[in-house]
Amino acid sequence: MLLSLHTGRARFAAVASAVCLTALVGCSDSNGGGSGDSSSTPAATTAVPSPSGSSSSSAQPGKTAAKVVIKNFKFKPSTLSVAPGTKVTVTNSDTTTHTMTATKGKAFNTGDIAVGKTVTFTAPSKSGAYPFDCTIHPFMTGTLTVK
User: Does 25 lie in the same domain as 52?
Assistant: First the structure.
């Protein structure tokens, strides 16, 4: 009887250990952070400011990225220069919904960006200056220059 009790405890401990390990592995993310937040941006695609004031990423050759943050009812930066086809990521760090919309033509439009959300669009392929605003708050303005 003592042997079967000991064997049962050992079996239980092994099963419990396996369940715990499975749960731990399932909770970790591919970056090893373990946060489980699928909305976080991997380091390889994080935009890094360049000396010209635009943002670009050198992590993926041939691919560029730029970042705009909306905070205190302002686009930061409000003027941005990018290469044609650049991926522009807009993060709303403000207290209300905003947009980033080209004021001439339909060059780009993020649509409504809720508080705390991020939207990415592709810069126009044609060089030029593209003024933009927030269609909800038209006093919020800026210019995207493609060159």
Answer: no
Assigned token pair, 124:
């126009």
The DSSP secondary-structure symbol of 106 reads: T
CA–CA gap between residue 39 and residue 30 (Å, rounded): 12
Contact between 88 and 123 under an 8 Å Cβ cutoff? The reply is yes
Structure pTM?
Answer: 0.59
Range(s) of the domain holding residue 96:
47-146
> How far apart are alpha carbons 140 and 147 in whole angstroms?
23
**Residue 111's CATH number:** 2.60.40.420
Collapsed DSSP state (helix, strand, coil) of residue 16 = helix
Q: Which of 143, 132, 47, 145 is nearest to 98 (CA)?
A: 132
Do 73 and 15 sit in the same domain of this protein? Answer: no
Flag whether 39 is in a domain. Answer: no
pLDDT in tens, 88-120: 999 999 999 999 999 988 999 999 999 999 999
Strand order from edge to edge, sheet including 74-76:
74-76, 65-71, 87-92, 118-122
Q: Is residue 79 part of a domain?
A: yes
- DSSP class of 103: S
